[in-house]
Design brief:
Purple Acid Phosphatase, chain A, domain 2; 18 strands; alpha/beta; 8 helices; about 375 residues; disordered C terminus; 6-stranded mixed sheet; single chain
């Protein structure tokens, strides 16, 4: 019953172009720290196998320092480690994988075809294959079937499950026919639940640290046990910082800075946020630099986007002898006698009504 850690898509040495240069450099260093947290987690769990499903590096020209950091981290792990290079870190004679001498417990798959490595002390066999160029239109899983020999059979592979793709398209039919107990996948940066094709379980752990606003939320690895009768995996957070997008609706009735500060999370000082300011602003619009200065202490990095509209005079056409005027006159009469809470509801009704009468877009608070 091997205990495994399944991780992928570290993309070490990512450029972090959207951040200022100093923060981008700091983020690349923090990526390297992920490797030490991986090693500590492996020690805590007493993992037997570490399955690394490709794209550990963001490119084939990784910094030597980064490759050496990976080497040191893996050397500190007592488990058997398997790496299936992906499309970003594909195997070649010039890749970081070929440049260094790896410890005996690290096996790097280096052929496009499937290699199989028995681990007798764990009662399992680990299979895997590598990208040997940035693209591969085929899938080595086609036609593969693990022997029924009482061992747990695991495969480490980088590719697209169920897609027509240039990145190792994986047919679910081939997964179901593979005889594998677990298919440890990489390439998709969003974590998946454990899926099943026939008797074979499969999953993507996602990337262990977000790099942009297309990789939101908590990131980490999968860990657990693999049996011939099934898998038991759980998600373990590993990232230092999260990317998040927060929508903050504003009204023109109160100072924008007060509304902004009231809506900000108080536990995100380590994180990277994009704030979308919606709703209404005053006639002068928003002072984004001032709002950014107010929000900055709450985050590691934050960007603000003004999606507000200028507050309009809702009753400007109330004196017209038109359908719009009659509509506004009736609602203004109700508004003048209403409580403050009810006035807000009536104002929203006016906006919806004006949008319909003027053939505008639906009002969205």
């Amino acid at each position: 019953m091997p205990t495994i850690i399944h991780a992928a898509d570290f993309h070490l040495d990512s450029p972090f172009d959207a951040l200022p240069p100093a923060l981008a450099m700091e983020r690349r260093e923090e990526q390297r720290e992920l490797l030490h947290r991986l090693a500590l987690t492996a020690e805590e769990l007493r993992a037997d196998l570490i399955l690394l499903s490709g794209d550990l590096f963001d490119g084939s020209d990784a910094y030597l320092e980064t490759a050496q950091t990976l080497l040191r981290a893996l050397s500190n792990i007592r488990a058997n480690i398997f790496i299936a290079p992906g499309n970003h870190d594909y195997w070649s004679s010039r890749s970081p994988y070929a440049a260094l001498s790896w410890p005996d417990n690290v096996h790097i798959f280096h052929t496009a075809g499937i290699e199989s490595v028995p681990i007798p002390e764990c009662g399992c066999v680990v299979h895997g294959a590598a990208f040997t160029s940035p693209f591969r239109d085929d899938c080595p899983l086609k036609g593969f079937h693990a022997p029924e020999d009482g061992n747990v059979h695991i495969m480490v592979l980088h590719g697209d499950m169920g897609k027509h793709s240039r990145y190792c398209p994986i047919d679910p039919v081939d997964v179901a026919a593979s005889g594998l107990h677990y298919l440890a996948l990489g390439h998709v940066h969003a974590r998946s639940p454990v899926g099943h094709e026939g008797p074979t379980a499969w999953a993507y752990p996602g990337c262990p640290e977000g790099r942009g606003f297309d990789e939101l939320g908590e990131k980490g690895i999968l860990a657990g046990t693999i049996l011939t009768s099934g898998v038991n995996l759980r998600f373990i957070p590993l990232c230092k910082r999260r990317y998040e997008i927060l929508t903050i609706p504003l009204s023109g009735n109160n100072p924008p800075e007060d509304q902004l500060l009231a809506a900000l999370p108080r536990d995100a000082v380590q994180d990277i946020y994009r704030l979308l300011l919606t709703g209404e602003s005053g006639a002068e619009g928003l002072d984004l630099p001032a709002l950014h200065t107010a929000a900055a202490p709450f985050f590691y990095s934050v960007a603000l986007y003004d999606q507000t509209r200028i507050r309009r005079d809702l009753w400007a056409r109330a004196d017209e002898d038109t359908l719009t005027g009659l509509f506004l006159q009736q609602l203004r009469t109700r508004w003048e006698s209403a409580l403050d809470a009810d006035r807000t509801i009536i104002e929203d009704a006016v906006r919806f009504g004006l949008a319909a009468l003027e053939n505008g877009e639906d009002y969205r608070p």
